[in-house]
Design brief:
TIM Barrel; Immunoglobulin-like; eight-stranded parallel β-sheet; 10 helices; binds ligand H79
Length: about 425
């Protein structure tokens, strides 16, 4: 069972992923050709030659990137950690690297160390900072893997020694405390090679958590597939990396945004099954985050802030039914929470629950609610909580229930 052994990660529940690199300048279109696939893959998908793609660095001047603004907003949205793409598959380092001049300081007119800016902002606002690093795919380095292409000629060992391992050393040495090393697509990485990376990370920063995509089952928590939510509560520590629209890197033509309501439901659903939600923003080539992302996250953040106690540090629900017709349940010590996503005109009923309830209340105001335990004609235990008049046509609020016992206990459903 995956175990980070770190309480902050188990309690965090909500984090911000930031995908930003040279691909943001293209915004999903190169020489009149568009990609309707994830935009950070444009170099691979449209077969842009290395010598052409790398010229993008000469245009990298992100006048609208404001690390402090992003970190402050993430804080306000209730996010507990940030994961930033220090180097994505394209191979471009978003920090000052000594191992390769293909980086945001040496190859650009702006000469900005973006990671340093983020590190300082995170330290200022007490936000945990994790780093995405593409350890096997590197489309710029002749010895890096390239997905969907022939890799028979590459010397991965050479790439590891020249770029991957030295760059990992840099990001773990020069940028303060790194909370997570977020690897992705191990490709042909052998178990021995993955172990080398793990050892390096732990030698430099013993508390830095390694995600599941280090490969070879060496991760300290399970990373689900992109945007994939396990159907059942999953034991151990895990996280869903996910997007607000259909891309990670900025794509000017992707307007397929999820609604704030959908995002709230996904967050609570993931939390009820015991996972963290790592939700992405993709700044554009100038460093500006799409206004739509802010709009959605402001609304999600309002729910998270008003209902913090029902989200952070919650535990995996022990047993179905944790999803009901009106919403989703979460729980933590002596508390059960009903997140209500559809208007309920009279009362909610939670069936088959065996606990002794002491109190029910509206989480956002603390208002006491009338509740009644009972038994159905089939002798199944339940609790009912009355919805106050003012809330009967509302949705997206949460009811807390205090229990005698530490965790909810559901009776097996009998035939
Ligand atoms: O960083 C984000 C993605 O770029 C990365 N993981 C998340 C966190 C990722 N790496 N690999 N994949 C996602 C799988 C990608 C597969 C595809 Fe394609 C890319 C399908 C469509 C674009 C490559 C190009 C395969 C088909 C076309």
């Amino acid at each position: 069972m995956a175990d980070t052994k770190q309480q902050w990660f188990k309690d965090a529940k909500f984090g911000l992923f930031i995908h930003w690199g040279l691909y943001a300048i293209l915004a999903g279109e190169y020489k009149g050709q568009k990609t309707d696939r994830i935009a950070e893959w444009i170099m691979n998908y449209l077969n842009i030659p290395r010598e052409e793609y790398e010229k993008l660095a000469e245009q990298f001047d992100p006048v609208n990137f404001d690390a402090e603004d992003i970190v402050k907003r993430a804080k306000a949205w209730g996010m507990r950690y940030i994961v930033f793409t220090s180097k994505h598959h394209e191979g471009f380092a978003m920090y000052h690297s000594e191992c390769s001049p293909y980086n945001s300081v040496d190859a650009t007119p702006c000469k900005r160390d973006i990671l340093k800016e983020l590190q300082l902002a995170c330290e200022k606002y007490d936000m945990k900072l994790g780093l995405y690093y593409s350890q096997a795919q590197d489309w710029h380095d002749p010895d890096g893997y390239v997905a969907k292409k022939d890799n028979s000629h590459i010397n991965y060992r050479n790439y590891l020694d020249r770029k991957c391992l030295p760059q990992l050393r840099e990001i773990l040495t020069n940028y303060g405390k790194i909370a997570i090393l977020w690897f992705d697509t191990p490709m042909g990485t052998t178990p021995e090679e993955s172990v080398e990376m793990v050892k390096l990370v732990k030698e430099l920063q013993p508390e830095c958590i390694i995600n599941g995509r280090i490969g070879n089952e060496l991760g300290e928590y399970m990373t689900t597939g992109d945007n994939f939510i396990p159907r059942l509560p999953y034991e151990g520590d895990w996280e869903v990396p996910a997007t607000l629209n259909d891309t990670w890197g900025f794509n000017k033509d992707d307007h397929n945004w999820k609604t704030p309501e959908e995002i709230i439901q996904l967050l609570v659903k993931i939390n009820s099954r015991g996972g963290n939600y790592l939700l992405n923003i993709g700044p554009d080539g100038t460093g500006k985050v799409p206004e739509k992302s802010f709009e959605i996250l402001d609304k999600v953040g309002a729910y998270v802030q008003a209902n913090q106690e029902a989200i952070f540090a919650t535990k995996r629900m022990p047993y179905e039914p944790y999803e009901l017709s009106w919403g989703v349940l979460t729980c933590k010590e002596h508390r059960l929470y009903a997140h209500i996503f559809r208007p309920v005109s009279s009362r909610i009923q939670i069936l088959n629950i065996e606990n002794t309830f002491k109190r029910a209340y509206l989480v956002e105001t603390g208002e006491e609610l009338v509740f009644e335990p009972g038994r159905t004609c089939e002798d199944d235990a339940y609790i009912e909580v009355e919805i106050p008049k003012a809330y009967q046509d509302k949705a997206y609020y949460c009811i807390g229930m205090e229990m005698e016992e530490e965790m909810p206990v559901f009776a097996p459903i009998h035939a």
